[in-house]
Amino acid sequence: MSSCAPGCPEYGRVSRRGFLTLAAGALAATTVFGDTVLQTAWSREGAAPAVLVVLSLRGAADGLNLVVPHADPAYWTARPRIAIPKDRLLAADAMFGLHPALAPLLPLWRDGRMAAVHATGLPAPNRSHFSAMEEIEDADPGSPARVGWLNRLVGRDGDTDPLHALHLGGPVPPTALLGPHPVGAAPAVDDIVLAGTDTGGPDDPRVRSLHTVWDGVPGPLGEGVRTAMRMVDDFGPVRATPVTPANGAAYPTSDLGRALAAAARTIRGDVGAEVITVDHGSWDMHADLGTVDRGDLRNMTADLASSLAAFFSDLGPVAEKVTVVTLSEFGRRVRENASMGLDHGHGNVMFLLGAGVKGGRYYGSWPGLTDTAQADLLVTRDYRSVLAEVVSSRFDASPAAVFPGVRLETIGAMAPR
Prior knowledge:
By secondary structure, this protein is α/β, with parallel strands linked by helices. The protein has helices at residues 9-17, 63-66, 73-78, 106-110, 129-138, 149-154, 205-214, 219-234, 236-240, 255-269, 296-315, 383-395, 399-402, and strands at 27-33, 36-42, 51-57, 67-68, 97-98, 114-121, 166-168, 184-186, 273-280, 322-327, 348-354, 362-363, 381-382.
């Protein structure tokens, strides 16, 4: 049984160290907003026809209160203080309903652009934040190679041009994008400039000097300098994109709001951003999780919903090519603990939003709950089956190549592009 309170020291160490960042295949970037980390991987030259945003709810979010199985009697007996009242649920069907703090996302749900897949997760319980994060992001069981699933996705055509890898905001490459593609580094999006230049243009004296010195130099050092110069040039459209959100979008003044605003700016810059990851935490609520109207879960859920709603408004028609997937390293126990919180569990819920989603409904196979001290939500759908449908439908990628050795099941939540 987990005994961390109010949050696991392990989780705190991991998030502050920057483990939550991913390494890149294709051009990758990392920017830190408090407890939220933004990553970007660029596609080949030119605009990307599809963009995947992977939003990780770090710390193990409670999927049973985000998408409530109101028809399961064990839910009510196991959570006498923290259960979400049935008459407050949104978009309820015969079995499930959404937490009321997700209200800003109801337009997406009603438009068929948002869905939930319940009882998802790793095939076997792993209650260590650090270990579970790495296992989920590597997504290649039994392999000694440290290559993340997103690196396999963006590197699917064998392109290893160093121009396609840039890391912003931190020195540690994240696991899901970790792999063979080189990674550049810069503190933030607006810092991707050549130091010491006035204009950065081809006629700038320092730019001319760099070309004179390095254009004929062979080997990795010369190629590295030339690559950095190309990166600066190619990233210009993002720096030139207005910081102010488009279409009247109003983001929360939170870490997640700022990160998603930066993600939308990158997508609007249209320089070929293909994969963006956002790490948001902490959802590790061992104590004082709260009730339907107050507490940490309610506040985090409201921030999540408002930030995502603003993100899609900001994108406007560009949202037609953007798909968002949320996941967490594991779920929480079925029964609340003595501290009005929840200890580490197993199964969880994943949200799908945006392009290609067959929304307005709940997916998955419900296993039923048991009200005992050690009871978990059992996993009936491997999380990789959900991700496989996304990458195959949006990128025409081979699921077997992105998730090697995994027996994938049909979810049915994504339509082909």
